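User: Fold this one for me? It's Deoxyuridine 5'-triphosphate nucleotidohydrolase.
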Amino acid sequence: MTLTLPLVAADSLLVPGYAHASDAAMDLRAAKSVVVEPLGRALVPCGISIAIPEGYAGLVIPRSGLAAKHGVTVLNGPGLIDSGYRGEVCVSLANLDSESSFTVTVGDRIAQLMIVAAPKVNVAVVDSLDATDRGTGGFGSSGVK
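Assistant: Here's what I get for Deoxyuridine 5'-triphosphate nucleotidohydrolase.
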């Protein structure tokens, strides 16, 4: 299935795209140069506005290479873009490196955008939930290794 995503871009360089045909998310690019100081954060504009269709949402997620090589990630990852939002897409980047600053230049791939189905959910208050194998086991309940 292919979904059409209406988009307004300040520059054709900033239009998100897939690096590979099988990718699940599109790369978002920086529209402004920014230096993210050690243990700092910065809101980086992407120079695009999008119209996500109703029933879908956009998730802004980190790029694994930036995280692994530079300690740079999406601060509120995943960030959520609701279908009714029409403003500029921006990415809140965090530099988790305690010693080195990270420089973002115009056109750099800084995050990824994944469009996902977001159905409306009706909440039903009940007295109990059905039993499962996992039950109430939470953080670390399946082991740490």
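One thing worth pointing out: The beta strands are 7-9, 26-29, 34-36, 41-50, 56-61, 72-74, 79-81, 88-95, 102-104, 109-117.
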